[in-house]
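User: What would this chain look like folded?
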Amino acid sequence: MGEQSLVGRKALVTGGARGIGAAIAKALAQAGAAVMIGDILDEAGQATAAGLSANGASAGFVHLDVADDAQWQHAVNTTVQALGGFDLLVNNAGIEVTSLVADIDADGLRRMCEVNIVGTALGMKHAFRAMRPQGVAGQGGSVVNIASVAATIAFPAIAGYSGTKSAVDRMTRVAATEAGKLGYGVRVNCIYPGLIPTEMGLQLANDIVGNGLAADVPAAVGAVIEQTPLGRLAEVGDVAEAVVFLSSPQARFITGIGLPVDGGMGM
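Assistant: Here's the prediction, encoded as structure tokens.
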């Protein structure tokens, strides 16, 4: 796959201010796409977009709370106007609240549902409306949803998170079916990343310790690595490159799948 496989593409990446999202935005830009970053972290998002622009990419930032329908409409309109189109959405924004089932907090669970499930669903809604033939962009495109290996395995203390990411997986497949049958020209896929040592991933390791499931953080991380045939944690670049592939012409006949990027942990 050539480094410029996405030349001419116009992307919106949610949760793109930092971590996995920032890595995805960078990889898309390096592959030739113009990139709009959507996030609630205004300062960090603007800095990430500025960094992409400084390296020659066409990039911008828009404030986006993915659980807010009106903000999605604004973000899509901003993307179309600023980039000259919209044909690639990466639904990356997500949160994780660790809890044993016996200690689940209703507010934390609702917030995960709002961001991880509602946010992903609204993203697909507005991508479809914009990308389908009668939409404001109207050129078809690709949606990549970021699920998690948690959607494929039973791991303690993340029941709520696992449930929301399982929902992302199921919604991906239904959306791909609808887009195909209705002639939208939009492919929809998802990725199951393994544990990545970002801020959220390291917080999970700390929470595992706090819930009495590991003696310390190295032990918590070691347990994950032990379950991973490739013998390491995932890296942000592993996920970013998978997003580029699923967004590229090389994946033109791939839709409705969940691609594990987990080193074999979920097999």
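Strands lie at 10-14, 34-39, 59-63, 88-91, 141-146, 186-193, 258-261. If you want, I can go into more detail on any region.
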